[in-house]
Every structure is written in structure tokens, then in C-alpha cells.
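Project standup — Tuesday

K.O.: blocked on the structure for the chain from last sprint. Re-posting the sequence here as requested.
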Amino acid sequence: MVYIKTKWRGSFTVEATVVVSVTCIIIGMVIMFGMYGHDRSVMQSMANQMAQEASLWSGRYVLPEIDEVDYIALIENANTDLERIENQGYRNIQNRLLCADLQSVQVKHGLFGKDVRVEIIAAFHIGRYRFKTEIQASSKKFESEDLPRKKNEQRESY
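H.V.: unblocked you, prediction finished:
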């Protein structure tokens, strides 16, 4: 039987605790950064989707939730309200986040009214620190004049 010298007797235990604790801290940081990346990509994806929906539905008399014509708005000559898209996006984002607290979702028209802008603000908590994150997306308003038109070709008679 081999005996360890008495001066090295507890060093393996001390080294093992240091290695295990550093490994656990690194694994925890990787998990937190993964959750941060997930939440940020979910928010950017939803901002892009909301900007696209708002650009398609603004100026139309259609309810985006059910894709049906809103006859009351048609009679009153009103546009689809961007607040509906805000509320729908808020509900969709809030259920998908892992570690972020959603603070606000704003959908508004651009400066000259030719585009739609979406801004999502959230806060991430890592320990006692709080990081504010802003996600922005925009999309050009889709007008019916933007569609390519076929020229009326006259039919040749035989």
C-alpha cells in the first residue's frame, strides 16, 4: 500500500472544489447567454412579423385577427387600428420569452407615413443586474399601386 506524504494530503480536495465550482459557473453563464440569445431572437422575429402585418393591414378595412372585412370601419372611412396589432404581438411575445420581462410594444407609422415601425422594449435580469434591450423593425407600407399590373392585351380576332 502506498501512502501519500502528509504535506500533499488535502490538496486534491481543494483543487477539485475549485475546478468543479469554476465549471459550474461557466456552465451557468453559457445557459444564461443562451436564454438571452433565444429571447432576443424571438423578439426580433416577432418585431419583423408585426411590422410586416402592420404594413399589409394599415390602410385596409380588415381585422387582422380573423381576416374579415370590418364594415363599420369601411363605412366610417377609417384604417385598421395599429393598436390591434400591438395587442396581438404583445400576447404572442409574452408567452415565448424565457428570462426577459416585456415592458412595451409599440407599432406606429413612420415620419412621412410611408412605413410602419415596431419597437419592443424588454429588460433582462442577470443576478441583481438589469439590462434594458430595445428591438426595432420597420417595413414599407404596402399599397395596391405597388402590385405589378398586367397590361390589357387586346385579343386578336381570327
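K.O.: great, moving the ticket to review. The chain has a mean pLDDT of 78. The first helix runs from residue 11 to 57.
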